[in-house]
Amino acid sequence: MSKNSILAVGSVALDSVRTPFGKVRDALGGSATFFSASARFFSPVSLVAVVGEDFPLKYMRRIENLGVDVSGVQKVPGKTFRWKGFYDFDLNTAKTLKTELNVFQTFKPVISRAHRNSRFVFLANIDPDLQRSVLRQVKNPALTACDTMNYWIENKKKSLLGLLKQVDVFLCNDSEARELSGEFNLVGASRWLLGHGPRLVVIKKGEHGVICFSRDFVFLVPAYLLENVFDPTGAGDTFAGGFIGYLTRSARLSEPVVRQAVIYGSVLASYNVESFSFDRIEKLTLQDIRKRYTQFRKMTRF
Amino acid sequence: MSKNSILAVGSVALDSVRTPFGKVRDALGGSATFFSASARFFSPVSLVAVVGEDFPLKYMRRIENLGVDVSGVQKVPGKTFRWKGFYDFDLNTAKTLKTELNVFQTFKPVISRAHRNSRFVFLANIDPDLQRSVLRQVKNPALTACDTMNYWIENKKKSLLGLLKQVDVFLCNDSEARELSGEFNLVGASRWLLGHGPRLVVIKKGEHGVICFSRDFVFLVPAYLLENVFDPTGAGDTFAGGFIGYLTRSARLSEPVVRQAVIYGSVLASYNVESFSFDRIEKLTLQDIRKRYTQFRKMTRF
Hints:
Two copies of one chain form a homodimer.
Chain A: E1 6-9, E2 13-19, E3 22-29, H1 31-39, E4 45-51, H2 57-65, E5 69-75, E6 82-86, E7 95-100, E8 120-123, H3 128-137, E9 143-146, H4 150-155, H5 157-166, E10 169-173, H6 174-181, H7 186-194, E11 200-204, E12 210-214, E13 218-221, H8 235-247, H9 255-272, H10 279-283, H11 286-300
Parallel strand pairs in A: 1-4, 1-8, 2-6, 4-5, 8-9, 9-10, 10-11
Antiparallel strand pairs in A: 2-3, 6-7, 11-12, 12-13
Helix pairs in contact in A: 1-8, 3-5, 6-7, 8-9, 9-11
């Protein structure tokens, strides 16, 4: 177990996506997959998830080939979690056509003895009851973070609020921040969220960038400007991967490190949306990341 | 005539606005008014516009008291241009209830001998035929800029394209950039626009900030983060005022000056939306502007 190892718990999925630029069927997806593929540039990642018997072996190999520890991915009878959706020219909003939970319906993450010592924990968007059960199993982590979605805000708000009390970092998109806090203005929403537990609130606004709030500072960044956005699926989790990955350098959430982490997260997300699935991230090098980081600075400095 | 004097041609209006936080009737508005109230912090401004007999003398005094030269504002028989609209909680989109052109319908800007020597010209959103007639009257300006709106894109596209060939800076919002260029992606849209004349294209995205494109660089900025947005009316023209005002320091559009100008424009716009009409901008000091500039840097640096 490396001292900076990240435990990532969430979904591994088969995504069928249509965008104005093409379509894929049963492509490798899932919140924890995108997160891991991105975070591995900065730190060792152990993935905990469940797949069905139909999950292609070559997909598992692709994840393994990224250097991600897949020993925590259970294969169980039944079909893998599937998401089917599309995007119009306004690529900021996914339209869901079908969600099949399949094996995810009965998923109970059991964290192995080795993984219980992880210093960093990322709880991707799953039932907050399960996110909390993971936290109960991990011993004294240095930093914990979670994401969520509107479904849990509407159906498991109490459990989600319990989870918020236990995490250091809460990531969500702007509409989720508004819905959970009941505040339309994002400054008000973030204050509400910071008052409910986390030390850091990161609001993802898709093509409009990110706002990061702590009790001591606020950090605003536009999204990296791209001419060709191909498929935004997984951008939020890819952002989280770069962000949490970089934060393994400072579990104390020092301000300069947090700011850098937001930029690295944004850079990773910008690469992710250039292809379907995680095809681009898979081929990415640290050099590519550094190059776009420099470009990001040029685009925003004054 | 100061060597950095800006000639601002556009509308002076009476606005009736409702937002979730209050309402005003026949408040002082208009694109050229907002522009002038903002640009005057950086450079002397001469306003050219038309008002009706009903235009309150106290409003004219308010504009004059800002130090704006109002010798080019004609008072003619009839009623002043009026706009009536409202905003919901999504303050980024104005909903128009009524537009009464009134005296604006027959407005033909005649530029006085003194004003013809202006080095800087801002053509606020009016009929592109009129914007071009102003340019014909001005002698050899150092820098010209214009704004527009969807109505002219739809009804006077040819004239607007003629105007684009003649201006150095084109400002518009994101939906206008898309509509005029036929390109959904803003990088594509800006390339199209730069190919049609201007040396600089500034795309205003409201609460999502600004993207500024030249042939040599791109500059992205988020909007200054505010907890209380009261009334966004005039934000775009207030931005333009700060932006063009600051550019009087470098008509050559040097990159560092352009970047600073975008920030000053954003700072002015952020103050404008904190009150109805230009109530906040009217009371603003250079110290306030500098303070928020520093704050902006803190919010965005990495």
